[in-house]
């Protein structure tokens, strides 16, 4: 039964995404906020399907730690859900994303129009420089910046080396960083179509002020994200 429900959600995912992609094409001629509204409706529709087709709810803890924009949200990354939810949780998010996604037809057009933050993971120092240029613009526009410090999705219980992008944003932008823990990988497969019923929990941790040395910042960030994620995975 769980497989059937996951298949039904997959069908819903692609049908709803196709409808929304076509419906909001005229938004490409309007200010980015028009497309942002469409992305919010899209994300809400997907979470509606997740709830009623799979039986997966979601909840948020620590919302008092979500500072007014602009701030940097450093997020654990276990599933695609972690990218979808920001179109609901914050207004006008600027998400650090793989540059190759900009080449995806229609979806890439929307990402360009809403000024997401591309990064070419194979370009080394040049990639960081370009990322920071886009990030400064997002900061100056008063937007929350979303980054996944590990750079890719990881399995529940898994930790990868935190990449230098989050430290570069912290140093360059002079903004507080809000660590974000979650347990989405227990309900939405890292790869494949499987979904499982239960509750996805996202938790905003205590913000890190913008005045720490790099080593102290990275240690504090990783301890917060990984400690919070382990607690959520254990059901705490």
Automatic annotation (TrEMBL):
<dbReference type="GO" id="GO:0006654">
    <property type="term" value="P:phosphatidic acid biosynthetic process"/>
</dbReference>
<dbReference type="Pfam" id="PF01553">
    <property type="entry name" value="Acyltransferase"/>
</dbReference>
<keyword id="KW-1133">Transmembrane helix</keyword>
<keyword id="KW-0472">Membrane</keyword>
<feature type="domain" description="Phospholipid/glycerol acyltransferase">
    <location>
        <begin position="71"/>
        <end position="185"/>
    </location>
</feature>
<keyword id="KW-0808">Transferase</keyword>
<keyword id="KW-0012">Acyltransferase</keyword>
<comment type="pathway">
    <text>Lipid metabolism.</text>
</comment>
<dbReference type="InterPro" id="IPR002123">
    <property type="entry name" value="Plipid/glycerol_acylTrfase"/>
</dbReference>
<feature type="transmembrane region" description="Helical">
    <location>
        <begin position="6"/>
        <end position="30"/>
    </location>
</feature>
<dbReference type="GO" id="GO:0003841">
    <property type="term" value="F:1-acylglycerol-3-phosphate O-acyltransferase activity"/>
</dbReference>
<keyword id="KW-0812">Transmembrane</keyword>
<protein>
    <submittedName>
        <fullName>1-acyl-sn-glycerol-3-phosphate acyltransferase</fullName>
    </submittedName>
</protein>
């Amino acid at each position: 039964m769980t497989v059937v429900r996951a298949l039904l959600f997959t069908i819903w995912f692609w049908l709803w995404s196709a409808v929304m992609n076509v419906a909001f094409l005229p938004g490409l001629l309007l200010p980015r906020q028009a497309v942002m509204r469409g992305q919010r409706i899209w994300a809400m529709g997907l979470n509606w399907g997740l709830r009623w087709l799979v039986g997966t709810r979601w909840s948020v803890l620590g919302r008092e730690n979500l500072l007014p924009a602009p701030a940097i949200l450093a997020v654990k990354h276990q599933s695609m859900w972690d990218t979808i939810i920001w179109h609901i949780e914050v207004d006008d998010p600027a998400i650090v994303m793989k540059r190759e996604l900009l080449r995806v037809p229609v979806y890439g057009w929307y990402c360009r129009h809403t000024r997401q933050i591309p990064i070419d993971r194979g370009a080394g120092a040049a990639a960081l420089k370009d990322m920071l240029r886009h990030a400064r613009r997002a900061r100056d526009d008063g937007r929350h910046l979303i980054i996944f410090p590990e750079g890719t999705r990881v399995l529940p219980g898994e930790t990868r080396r935190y990449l230098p992008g989050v430290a570069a944003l912290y140093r360059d932008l002079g903004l507080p960083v809000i660590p974000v823990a979650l347990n989405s990988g227990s309900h939405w497969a890292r790869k494949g179509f499987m979904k499982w019923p239960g509750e996805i929990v996202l938790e905003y941790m205590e913000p890190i002020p913008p005045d720490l040395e790099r080593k102290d910042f990275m240690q504090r960030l990783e301890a917060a994200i990984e400690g919070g994620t382990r607690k959520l995975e254990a059901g705490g």
